[in-house]
Here is the input.
Amino acid sequence: LAKTTQPISMDSYEGQEVNITCSHNNIATNDYITWYQQFPSQGPRFIIQGYKTKVTNEVASLFIPADRKSSTLSLPRVSLSDTAVYYCLVGEWGFKTIFGAGTRLFVKA
Amino acid sequence: DARVTQTPRHKVTEMGQEVTMRCQPILGHNTVFWYRQTMMQGLELLAYFRNRAPLDDSGMPKDRFSAEMPDATLATLKIQPSEPRDSAVYFCASGFSGGNNEQFFGPGTRLTVL
Here is the structure.
């Protein structure tokens, strides 16, 4: 399983764009990159997944460079309710999933 | 709105007692995961099942923990005997293999072992 490295925490202000980068130098050919969000007292929630280039949905964008050794989750115009822990996961579907420590995002008014 | 359900939501017990946590995965999902979350260790994968068969339980202390899927609508995680270090939030998640990597998490069971 590819190991992932993310910043421990980040601060932002409402209305700003937030970019959280995850390093996964040992990513394998069949690995996908998946991001989850977790609020206090809740289970993680799927945000977005990608394999290469750029993926966008109604919540976020995921940028993956050609070498796929890193990925960046982009949250446009964050609000206070985006304060949460964000996890980057790398792996094939259905195989053992390792959640790292995640990135604690604090959004301030 | 399909959801993973878990019971009980909270459990307080004394050391040495048996604890059983239950999970109902989303109908149609064929993969079920059990996780444990603590402040110190974060989210740890304990075990996961595909089509009710255990695929990996290497994250689970075998001497006291056991996980089963009696049928497709029920997954159980048992701890016997429980110890204070088992205090944590236990999450169940389900998903469908062959699709994307999305796991749908339940609300968790908060276990406190005194």
In short: Strands of chain A lie at 9-13, 18-23, 32-38, 45-50, 53-56, 61-64, 70-75, 84-91, 103-108. The first strand of chain A starts at residue 9 and ends at 13. DSSP finds no helices and nine strands in chain A.
